[in-house]
Amino acid sequence: MSSNVEEFRQILSSSEKIIVLSGAGLSVASGIPTFRGSGGLWRKYDSASLATPSAFAENQARVWQFFHYRREQVLNVAPNAAHYILAPLTIPRIRQSISPNSKFTHITQNVDGLCTRALEETMKDYHETDVPYPIEMHGRLFDVVCTAHDCDFRETNYNSPICPALKGTELVFGAGGPEPMVRRSDLPRCPKCGQLCRPGVVWFGERPHRIYEIMRLADEADLCIIVGTSAVVQPASKIGGRVKARGGKVALFNVELGNHADEADFVFLGPCEQSLTEVLGI
Fold first, then answer.
1. Which pLDDT tens digits describe the chain residue by residue (282 residues)?
2. Secondary structure percentages of the chain, helix, strand, coil, to 5
3. What are the residue boundaries of the Deacetylase sirtuin-type domain, all occurrences included (predicted)?
4. Domain spans, the chain
5. Cys bridge to 108: 22, 90, 92, 213, which one at CB 3.0-4.6 A?
């Protein structure tokens, strides 16, 4: 395990297939708390217990209030330096200066969309139009999906609030007040069939988007850069190990070592926006 910047840059420059796996730590500097820990708690319910199909089946209003709160958080923040350091790596002519002839894929567990926003802004700055977007394996916070099995409605919705009944419930949370009562009939409905909608994120117990493609990329990669994740949630937690098992290198950028630090060839501890800037220097 090394923290030698020049050694890592040499590995980066010679790599041919690079993947980045990013997690909640990437967005901390934007003001979004991590999914776990004291910043990830919601009243007496922690976020993991609310982000499940069973939680939604039991209390749709509570789950929608939680995700409305998260939506309102993200609507008021912007990408940070860590997002803007990773974004240019997606653009081939920029990446060539630090890793010639390489292919690059950004896989994110985040649902806040900040990776994509940073990339779109970077594309405009460099006048690029045909660049692969990050793979958002856990979906997107601003997507809304119909719960009816025979309805294919899905849309991206940035309305604030997403429905009148949820307006102000995020303020009650912030003040530590009692849980507001919201009727199920007043929650977001499908405009096509009228049935209840759900947030368009992947909940615990559901299959991540494009997971087979992600595992294929991990099997082919010769460098995996893990940024801002404790590597707890499966199957994302397996990605670094798969790269390592096939002879690839793993670099970890995080504020702590995490569960799979023993798989890392390089470890750069500290806030992502600082360590990525210092090491990559883009």
1. 899 999 999 999 999 999 999 999 999 999 987 755 444 444 455 666 788 999 999 999 999 999 999 999 999 999 999 999 999 999 999 999 999 989 999 999 999 999 999 999 999 999 999 899 999 999 999 999 999 999 999 999 999 999 999 999 999 876 777 889 999 999 999 999 999 999 999 999 999 999 999 999 999 999 999 999 877 778 888 999 999 999 999 999 999 887 777 889 999 999 999 999 999 976
2. 40, 20, 40
3. 1-282
4. 1-30+79-138+208-282, 33-76+139-201
5. 22
Distance CA 8, CA 79 (A): 25
The catalytic position among 68, 83, 138, 260 is 138
CATH topology of domain 1-30+79-138+208-282: Rossmann fold (3.40.50)
Q: Is 138 a catalytic residue?
A: yes
Residue 60, both tokens? 């749709």
Q: Residue with structure tokens 């419930």?
A: 169
Strands (E), the chain: 17-22, 41-42, 45-46, 103-108, 135-136, 139-146, 154-156, 197-201, 223-227, 249-254, 266-269
